[in-house]
Write a structure and sequence with these properties.
The structure is a single chain. This protein has a 6-stranded parallel β-sheet with strand order 1-4-3-2-5-6, with helices on both faces. Helices cover 37% and strands 20% of the residues. The chain is built from 10 helices and 9 strands. The chain starts with a strand and ends in a 6-residue tail after the last strand. The chain is an alpha/beta fold. The structure holds adenosine monophosphate. Adenosine monophosphate is lined by residues 26-27, 33-34, 36-37, 143-144, 146-147, 170, 172-173, 180-183.
Length: 283
Amino acid sequence: MEILETPAAARAWRRGQPGPVGLVPTMGYLHDGHLSLVRRSLAEDAATVVSIFVNPSQFGPNEDFSRYPRDEAHDLAMLGEAGVHAVYLPAVEAVYPTGFQTSVDVERVTQRLEGERRPGHFRGVATVVLKLFNATGADRAYFGRKDAQQLRVIRRMTLDLDLGVAIVPCDIVRERDGLAMSSRNVYLSPEQRAAAPVIQRALKEASAAWLVGERDATKLRGIVERRIRGEPLAEIDYVSVADDVSLDEVEGKATAPVVISLVVRFGATRLLDNVELGLPGGR
Ligand code: AMP
């Protein structure tokens, strides 16, 4: 497994790969959710490169950049065992050269939800992902459905800027009790951790209602909100029922696939989750 520390090293590695390259962008502190993306790439691509980069530009001034969990040795051991070909592990200075002043703004699809609550977040995400695509020359890139808006922002950027990278969405991997795996779950106290599966239960209730024909967005939001409000440690940041592609909020009846996404706070920790409804294949 090669360790690549600069964009130049990543490009040189890419030039040495005869076949398609898959990229799995991460911020490290890896768990089985990340590994599911890695395994998918290993199955589909001639070579897999995983990036580990806690990107300062996607964190707000009052967010958790400096305390974001990190464990490089453990991450590298996991990736070595999984059989990845290269890890791109650049320092902040290697990604943001002195005088850096160029970034990517994806417009409409970043306006609401996470983009609204975390100003500048998706500018940081889009910019760093474009840089990761450029450095690694990836043919395919793997993103979790857990970050629903991020996935749509990356798809939009890739299409709009003719990047020619195939974006591969991967299903949400959950703990046994239904909580979506996340590096940030370590922030939860034992009591908060025990209460957190309420998020998945709420989404399941809304999915069940959808399956028996409920299409009223207000009612679907209400089902989720009511269930979460029943949990005293949980505080709703938002619950959204939105068009699956544009992320425009649905008012009235849903006539196309939707994504129900939400952020629930447990103390200072924001947990994201979502479910897509009405897609062919019945996801
Ligand atoms: P992160 O390290 O949190 O930036 O996540 C890196 C990638 O892994 C993103 O594409 C995430 O959507 C994806 N990911 C994180 N958690 C999960 C999960 N529980 N299931 C599937 N994908 C995930």
